[in-house]
Each structure stands twice: as structure tokens, then as C-alpha cells.
Design brief:
mainly alpha; 8 helices; 79% helix
């Protein structure tokens, strides 16, 4: 397949939204580094919205492609991890409030899932995400958005031992690890079925 044929095959709205989400990552980083707190937050929220929109369009109009299967989750993970790391370290304008340990656990989990998805796709296999994985992703987004209002929330909820944003992030980590267990189980089952179907 030539490059032109590949582009033509994958040229659709969901994939364009996926690429837009990837392009928004450096925009977010620049805005965050410059201390433009709410502009960075808005960029993150727009990117998160494109995540919901491209999946809906792809399923409704049957525009699912191999490119989308690989790049859509990659774009999601890059955007969320970038935002997570930024809110760990912060800068002189935006305080870092997310625990580094939570981000490292998420990074390790995402690396594992991306490697597994790549290995499966090489065999033409796809393990669809669990509902628990989608819930975890939404929880990460919610926790990240709330982390931009960490101080205000701490003042409003002084009885909490840690910020509500941090609680939601750790809850999302727990749900994500739970989803990873089922992903591993389903992946091993599909690989077993695939190998059993191969000619001896």
C-alpha cells in the first residue's frame, strides 16, 4: 500500500480528531509552561472532548480503522499523562498537586497496555477496552480538571485529609489497575485461541 492509499484509507473525521488531540499536546505544554493556567486547562478540556467525539462518530458511522484503533488510545494516553506530569511538578504560576507515585503507576500501566495492544494488532487481534477502563479514564480527566482548583477546593472542604482532586486521581488509578487485570485475561484468552487456530 502506497502512502497516498494509506492516507486515503484512513482519512476520516474520527482520525482527524485524533490527530488534532495529538497536536494539542504541545499547545498545552507551551501554555502550561508560560503559566497560562486557564488557557492550558481549556486546551486539555477541548482535547478530552475530542476523545469522546471521535469515538462516538467512529462507532455511529462505522469509521473504525486500524490507524484509529492504535492512535486513538495513544493520543488519549499522551494527553492525560502530559497533563498529569505537568500537575505533578507545576511551575511558579501553577502549583503541582498530583502525587508523582500516582503518575508513575499510571505510566507503567499505560506502557504495558500499549505494548500489549501492539503485539495483538500484529496478529490482527483487538481487545476492546473494559467499561472499567473508560470509567478510570473519565475519573482521571475529572481529577485533572479539579486539580486546577486544588486550593479553592481545599478551602471549601477542609475536613478532607487530602484534596478531593487527589482522592479522585488515586481512585482512578485503582480502577485502571482493576481494568488492566481483565485486559490481561482477555488478551491471553485471545492469544490462546489465535495460536490454537494456526495450522500445525
Amino acid at each position: 500500500m502506497t502512502a497516498r492509499e494509506y492516507i486515503k484509507k484512513n482519512a476520516n473525521v474520527p482520525n482527524a480528531l485524533t490527530l488534532l488531540r495529538l497536536l494539542l499536546v504541545p499547545v498545552y505544554v507551551v501554555l502550561f509552561v508560560k503559566g497560562r493556567k486557564y488557557a492550558a486547562l481549556l486546551t486539555f478540556m477541548v482535547a478530552s472532548f475530542t476523545d469522546l467525539l471521535d469515538g462516538y462518530i467512529a462507532r455511529k458511522y462505522n469509521l473504525i480503522t486500524d490507524f484509529g484503533k492504535l492512535m486513538d488510545p495513544l493520543a488519549d494516553k499522551v494527553m492525560v499523562l502530559t497533563a498529569m506530569f505537568s500537575m505533578v511538578f507545576g511551575n511558579r504560576h501553577i502549583p503541582g498537586v498530583i502525587p508523582l507515585a500516582a503518575v508513575l503507576v499510571l505510566f507503567a500501566k499505560e506502557a504495558y497496555l500499549m505494548y500489549g495492544s501492539y503485539r495483538l494488532l500484529k496478529r490482527g487481534l483487538v481487545v476492546h477496552s473494559q467499561m472499567s477502563g473508560k470509567v478510570a479514564h473519565c475519573a482521571f480527566i475529572l481529577g485533572l480538571v479539579l486539580s486546577y482548583f486544588h486550593d479553592q477546593l481545599a478551602e471549601a472542604l477542609p475536613w478532607l485529609p487530602v484534596g478531593i482532586d487527589v482522592i479522585i486521581i488515586w481512585l482512578a488509578v485503582a480502577i485502571a489497575l482493576y481494568a488492566m487485570v481483565f485486559y490481561t485475561r482477555d488478551s491471553l484468552q485471545k492469544l490462546k485461541e489465535y495460536e490454537a487456530a494456526q495450522p500445525r
